[in-house]
Amino acid sequence: MHKIDFNDRWVFIKEGKESYIEKEIPDGEYITLPHCFNGIDGQSGDGMYKGKTCYQKKVALTGEELREYHYLEIGAASLVSHVYINGILAGSSRCGFSMYRVFLNPLLKEGENLISIVVDNSRFDDVYPLMADFSFYGGLYREVSWITTRALHFELLDNSRDGMYITQKAIKNGIYELKIKGSVINELHNKLESKIKVTLLDKEGNGVLSKTMKCAVIEKEEFEFIEELNQPRLWQGIEDPYLYTLKVELYQEEQLVDERNLEIGFRTIEITPDKGVFLNGKPIKLNGVSRHQDFAEVGNALTKEHMELDMSLIKEIGANSIRLSHYQHHDYFYTLCDRAGLLVWAEIPFISVPSTADKENQNAKDQLERLIKQAYNHCSIYCWGIQNEITIAIENEQIYEMVKELAAIARNLDAVRYIAQANIHSVANESSLNDLTDFVGYNLYYGWYYKEMKDLAVRLDEFHKVRPNIPVMVTEYGVDTNPVLHSYTPSVKDYTEEYQLLFQENALKTFKEREYVLGGYVWALFDFGSEIRNEGGTKGKNQKGLVTIDRKIKKDTFYLCKAYWSKEKFVKLAGSRFVNRHQEENDMVVLSNVNSVKLFVGEKMIGERNDHEPVKIFKGVKLAHGENFIRVEAVDSEGNCYYDEMFLNRVKDMDLSYVLKKTEEKTTVTNWFQKFDLTNVQEVAIKEGYYSTFDTIEELYKNEEAKAVFKKYFGDLAENPQMATMRGLMTIDSMSKRSRFNIPKELLSVINKELNVIEKRK
Ligand code: GCB
């Protein structure tokens, strides 16, 4: 297989005329892939383009070249795409985060060929994600490659990436089994003799294992090697992410015709309900971050440099695990994770609400199949996440069935890895949803969307008590934070850096104190585009990141995590952006993984600490009027020094630019029910054939009277774009189970009294 970049000089137009399928775009723009057409508007919060677009490129081929076999590999195109060669459909994909390939030969001709790719990011009722808190960027946003093969080659069209699957597992006392299973294709469909050779090389390039197998191929032939390896050097996570290279060569009569070089790590991962996670038999708390793939101004059109920058930040913070949410990420990113030693939670966008248009849930199944087949060979991946908060609107048997089916598909495709899910907090501990995967994650926002920070520990302990046999972790926790906002008295929904710090510290302590908690994934490492958001002084972004979307500002909480997780010694003064201080006495927060720390104001040392605490607070430090130079000095046990410094300005009056102007916030969280009388409410026995709180909003809306009742209590709620997508699923009853709607139980009876007298027409 010969693969070349096919990224330069595409012609792009942000419209999808039928004629572009076969005719050249007259006045398009020249672009280079990867390309996203929502790089700016997908993060502006002012509405983004959603619709058809077209990418075109010409390629000239000679008669001789046509005797070879040609494939186009599309890294990813969002959300739905169709590839046309000289006006004829050659292939398409409804899995906007996965790679796909198209066999070109039947449609190619000698001379010039026109390739048109129509990419559409409109809403499709049967394509995930349907609804989520991130921007559904459109574009041909990963690289495109042109692949040329000989007649004999490894499989290219089974939705896998490598045409083979490598499985490693420990079988006994330091002995590992290495299984390589794949297929060889013969384009000529006449019998060809081939030979497959596998060689395992260590980092220095020494052969550790070598095996050859003969294989006669007519059309397609499967092959399988099962070898044993004694005492391989293990992949030890971030401590020592040791990788071997597996070279798999395909020969036709002694001539090398195809080849794969795949990195592989040997490791065992055990997840227990009471003692947490074990990597190669050693306990490891998952100090995790979550990542969305987008970046300021380019949307999801990432280059290798973007991904390497992200990885350098992940390494800096000291995370040992990552949740790559909420969809399949770039293959190179999984490779970076293998090399960095991160344990990866990989997942599909079966998120928020299931499709009512796709009864078979085919799109979720397809995305799962592609994720697993394409990412299978990455040793960093320890689990497949099959759903995220899929019960936001409603939790019922149908959804359980869907999750069950996805779990079965994942198990069938990968017998070794764990299968997991991330539940919304409203899923009861006892819910049978929790029984459908090997372990469970909960997205818990106690102290942000609901209740208080301390309730995180309460909830986890309750879960563990009720479900002692289900391993549990926190798959999301976080708070929106705008690094220009500051407070002496941080509180929920103030969006300050100081509140994020408190929130994060509470969570990290909670995990640390509980052996049974597998760990947590902070939501999120980077701010990300979310077209539906307008809060915390910013539009179009979710600001729960520890780093801003342009990766330029590391919020204080970044260093808090670093102090907890990283072995790279450092010291950092929190609050350096909270420059103008109107109080004389200030608590100085020092974040460090070095025990011995001294704090200075000007030349004067005003305090010293020597302990293991990652957060060291120097209380009531007095500031003089005007500029104050604050310096912190840390010395480790070997005598190495680390410094940080900042200027603080003592001012007379409070700097109001640090306080959020509460104008834009109008969320669905209200107390509007207070205006209804809920005293002495009697329960209503629901009559069949009449409307009730158990009908979906869509059904209520079909009847003018029932709609009026709904509107009386909820106003235009059902018409806001987010709710609109849930109308077919959500009932008033299911809304009442979501704390953000704040619906008192008694209100259901009040509403039923009015709804349950309206007869349903046949
Ligand atoms: C969640 C979702 C995630 C959101 C996050 C939030 O539970 O899984 O996609 O971005 O909450 O910030 O609200």
TrEMBL record:
<comment type="similarity">
    <text>Belongs to the glycosyl hydrolase 2 family.</text>
</comment>
<dbReference type="InterPro" id="IPR006102">
    <property type="entry name" value="Ig-like_GH2"/>
</dbReference>
<dbReference type="GO" id="GO:0005975">
    <property type="term" value="P:carbohydrate metabolic process"/>
</dbReference>
<dbReference type="InterPro" id="IPR006103">
    <property type="entry name" value="Glyco_hydro_2_cat"/>
</dbReference>
<dbReference type="InterPro" id="IPR008979">
    <property type="entry name" value="Galactose-bd-like_sf"/>
</dbReference>
<dbReference type="InterPro" id="IPR036156">
    <property type="entry name" value="Beta-gal/glucu_dom_sf"/>
</dbReference>
<dbReference type="Pfam" id="PF02836">
    <property type="entry name" value="Glyco_hydro_2_C"/>
</dbReference>
<protein>
    <submittedName>
        <fullName>Beta-galactosidase</fullName>
    </submittedName>
</protein>
<dbReference type="InterPro" id="IPR013783">
    <property type="entry name" value="Ig-like_fold"/>
</dbReference>
<dbReference type="InterPro" id="IPR017853">
    <property type="entry name" value="GH"/>
</dbReference>
<keyword id="KW-0378">Hydrolase</keyword>
<dbReference type="Pfam" id="PF00703">
    <property type="entry name" value="Glyco_hydro_2"/>
</dbReference>
<feature type="domain" description="Glycoside hydrolase family 2 immunoglobulin-like beta-sandwich">
    <location>
        <begin position="164"/>
        <end position="267"/>
    </location>
</feature>
<dbReference type="InterPro" id="IPR006101">
    <property type="entry name" value="Glyco_hydro_2"/>
</dbReference>
<keyword id="KW-0326">Glycosidase</keyword>
<dbReference type="InterPro" id="IPR051913">
    <property type="entry name" value="GH2_Domain-Containing"/>
</dbReference>
<feature type="domain" description="Glycoside hydrolase family 2 catalytic">
    <location>
        <begin position="274"/>
        <end position="565"/>
    </location>
</feature>
<dbReference type="GO" id="GO:0004553">
    <property type="term" value="F:hydrolase activity, hydrolyzing O-glycosyl compounds"/>
</dbReference>
